[in-house]
Amino acid sequence: MDTPADRLKQARAVAGFKTATDAALRFGWNVNTYKSHENGQRNLRVDKVEQYAAAFGVPPAWLQFGGSLTGQVDGVSAVQNVPETTLEPSASSPSGGGEDGASVSCREDDVEIGDLTTDGLVGDRDFPVYGSALGGPDGEMIVSYDPIEWARRPGPLMGVRNGFGFYMIGESMSPAFEPGDMILCHPTRPPLPGQDVLVIVRAGTGEAALVKRLLRLDERGVRLRQFNPAREFEVPREDLVSVHLVVGKYSRR
């Protein structure tokens, strides 16, 4: 079974460290603590995921959730094996259309960038913005992996490779995020409980996206909170593709 501990051991070996002790001594870590993470005796907290990933030169999302270290999709760096340009959950699949198994009815609702308040877009016009369409009743969004806009790079993502934005659809996170807001995402920084996240989940034969408040992230999966209607729910690890930190938004006028 491929676990975070297995991937940590792999990353350490690929980085050129023959033993766990060698790596711990090189980076000044407590040897026993690091060994317990590598042998799976202790779970990896998000701060340790970020620390180890930086030391061994691997993406934090890969260390936490697995997947491929190659073939990354520009903009959504941890999404793998995208079958089509626009990903639509299968209505016949048990996981298609949200947690209730309801069928997904997609509607296009892209927003012109001129309708946004975008003070703070300060960099080159190299920032990809993706469109989305409403999916299931809990705010699932179907994301197109072809950018519909190239905007000036926002300040919070200056110098961040593969940073991206997308348009919020639905009211499940109102008033924090409203329909038409441009959500700004960091592709690799591990989020902490209490922060807002973009969660990419498996849905049928493709993937769907959720914007929620993170309550817990560990080997079991994630626990999330939405505001409208107020509820909490969990996504098991086997249904997770990636989790991305939301670092800001630009509100629709």
Q: How would you describe the overall organization of this protein?
A:
Keywords: DNA-binding, Transcription, Transcription regulation. Residues 8-63 form the HTH cro/C1-type domain. The protein has 253 residues and is an alpha+beta fold. The protein folds into 2 domains: 4-58, lambda repressor-like DNA-binding domains (434 Repressor (Amino-terminal Domain), Orthogonal Bundle), CATH 1.10.260; 113-250, Umud Fragment, subunit A, CATH 2.10.109. Helix content is 17%, strand content 27%. It is built from 5 helices and 11 strands. α2 (20-27) packs across α3. The longest helix has 11 residues, at 4-14. It is globular and about 50 Å long. It starts with a helix and ends with a strand. 42% of the residues are buried. Residues 70-122 have low confidence and may be disordered.
